[in-house]
Amino acid sequence: MRTFVSVVEAGSISVAAGELHLTQPAVSRRIQRLEAAIGSPLIDRTRRPFALTNAGRTALERCRRLLGMADELKAVGHDGLQPAREVRIGVAHALTELALTEPLDEVRREFPTALFRLHTGWSRDLLARVRTGALDAAVILLAEPDGPPAGVTADTLAREDLAIVASSAWPRGLYTVRDLRDQLWILNPEGCAARAGLQRELARARLPLRVGVETYNYELQLRLIARGRGLGLVPHRLLMRSPTRRRLRTLRVRELRFPQVIWMIRGDLAGGLNEPLDALRRALVDRLSRPRRR
Q: Which DSSP category does 52 fall into?
């Protein structure tokens, strides 16, 4: 059952084999034994990438439930402090620098025997994976007007402002969205909610989004912006900590505001998983509450 769930979460047998330290034939044999025990194929192998059959989708939900019960049983004799299994945490791309450095180090010191499996991705995808049980928790960014996500336990960590960033050669002043009509943008790849929001606002003004560079790396974005290669949309938190910030200018654009909220979300957990996640939440709040460098 664990192998079947791992294959589905990894999206391929080869990736799951690497994560489980097994050969691909060994993973395939385990899936075949489960199918034989259930009496129905779980994976449609005629499709690329593979897809679950109807029986596979039902089995996935029940396997996760049974594995969760098994983890609870293991926790009966546990000291109640260390989690009974690895903790699967998702982190939005824009928050990796925040979550994967000091805060996680603090949690590891408090829970030295705990294992953490970390995943990065877009906030909406991570939210969906927490809802299905593929992840135990995630640290995500959502637009402020959206409110708390449904179907999960959600804690507000902080408010996040996105800044429209240009090189320091831009004059100070209040701009309109039409003043930016001929500009290239340096942005995250498609799938980024902030980029989608910018595209919507430009479309309302009947302006195209002209992307000059796509990269996940915010510091690279800021260096390119400082060179005058285009405009960017960057979390103010990262801008203030960037060594490039003195060569940059935040633009005030009347029609463009993108307030967001950083959430920590988690599913229905057992087996001592809430304790390390509570510690991570406290560490993140502490990190976010520190004064920003000027």
A: E
In this structure, the dihedral spanned by the alpha carbons of residues 161, 241, 155 and 69, taken in order and rounded to 10 degrees, is 130
Give the pLDDT confidence of 197-234 residue by residue, as tens digits: 899 889 999 999 999 999 988 999 999 999 999 999 99
Q: Residue 44 is inside which H or E element, if any?
A: strand 43-44
Model-level pTM? 0.69
> Residue 255: which of 199, 190, 202 has the closest Cα?
202
Residue 200's Cβ-count burial label (10 Å; 0-12, 13-18, 19+) is: exposed
Q: Which two tokens stand for residue 27?
A: 């993973």
- What is the Cα–Cα distance from 123 to 103, expressed in whole angstroms? 19
Q: Quick check: 38 and 55 in contact, CB under 8 A?
A: yes
Cα separation of 16 and 24, whole Å? 8
Nearest-angstrom CA–CA distance, 84 and 240: 39
